[in-house]
Amino acid sequence: MKEGNEKKGFFTSVGMVRDDRILPEVRWLAVLIIPFLVAASILLYFWPNNTDKLFAWTIKPTMTPMMLAAAYLGGIYFFTRVALAKRWHLVKLGFLPVTTFASLLGIATILHWDRFNHSHISFFTWVALYFTTPFLVFAVWLHNRMTDPGTAESNETIIPQVIRLFIGVIGVITLAVSLLLFLQPALMIGLWPWMLTPLTARVVGAMFALPGVVGLGIALEQRWSAARIILEAQAFSILMILIAAVRAWSDFEQSNLISWLFVGGLSFLLVAIAALYSSIELHRRNAVKWHSLNA
Questions:
Q1: Of all residues in the chain, what percent carry a pLDDT higher than 70?
Q2: What is the DSSP string of 78-105?
Q3: Phi and psi for 57 in degrees, rounded to 5?
């Protein structure tokens, strides 16, 4: 077939230039998702006791809806950066984690269909989002990834391999917790530091899957510029989860060692992300300054 007759498929690289641009459909999807995340995060974080009246399903105790809201807040930050970003590789690492998170929530919805408030408008919104978002987010990632040159620029800061390995290990551990919560909810209900049901165990599992996939993505990506925005979003989510834990501390079984491991582990991750971010950014800025002085 002649070159002029080649068809440009949505999932093919024909006609695609690796210029690192963000495609219009990616921005539009980000803009479309943000208002739903804003509404849900406000309801769940500030009125966690009123999910029976305000949300798609009744969530108890308050720690679970606030943790879900914290995930949404990180999503708001991420998708806002997607809408404003100028280069694809700066945001590419967030799409597969979101796909995984949304897919698991969609599956959990099907498995626990009877637990939802079927007469509430938020239920229809929930179903519409989680039965479509996994496919849409994955589709735009699959298409836009073809514009990524995949190479580091001359002034790019490279993440040290040992740090990427460490982040990857944390990602694997987090995914293991996610799988246990999703596949063995009865087992995890007995171990978890606050009360869970089979549905909320799977929802919490979906929330653990998101940072787990982020960790694996960073482990496979050497460019700091590609990891920076998704790490900012993760740090924001972790901070909001820790604030939620303080607000809902009475929900925790405080004699349970896992309560302290949960709070301590998240605190460690937040400090580790802050330390990594600060050190690499300082190195990057010093390198830029040095290059400008020697140009």
A1: 92
A2: HHHHHHH-S-GGGTGGGHHHHHHHHHHH
A3: -155, 155
- pLDDT computed for residue 47 by the predictor: 98
User: In whole numbers, what is the pLDDT of the chain averaged over residues?
Assistant: 93
Mean of pLDDT values over 187-196: 97
pLDDT of residue 2: 44
Q: What is the pLDDT of residues 78-116, one digit of tens each?
A: 999 999 999 999 999 999 999 999 999 999 999 999 999
Ramachandran category for residue 60: left, alpha or beta (phi over 0 → left; psi -120 to 50 → alpha): beta
pLDDT one-digit tens code per residue, 152-161: 887 889 999 9
Q: How far apart are CA 284 and CA 80, in angstroms?
A: 24
pLDDT of residue 8: 52
* 186 phi-psi bin (left φ>0, alpha ψ -120 to 50, beta other): alpha
DSSP state of 113: G
Yes or no: say if 154 and 201 are a contact pair by the CB < 8 Å rule.
no
Q: Report the b/e string of 198-213 with b at 16+ CB within 10 A.
A: ebbbbbbbbbbbbbbb
Tokens describing residue 257: 């060692």
Closest residue by Cα to residue 32 from 24, 44, 41: 24
54 contacts: CB under 8 Å, gap ≥ 6: 43, 47, 122
DSSP-derived secondary structure for 178-192: HHHHHH-HHHHHHHS
- How buried is 244 (Cβ within 10 angstroms: 0-12 exposed, 13-18 middle, 19+ buried)? buried
Burial of 46 (0-12, 13-18, 19+ CB in 10 A): exposed
Rounded Cα distance between 71 and 241, Å, is 8
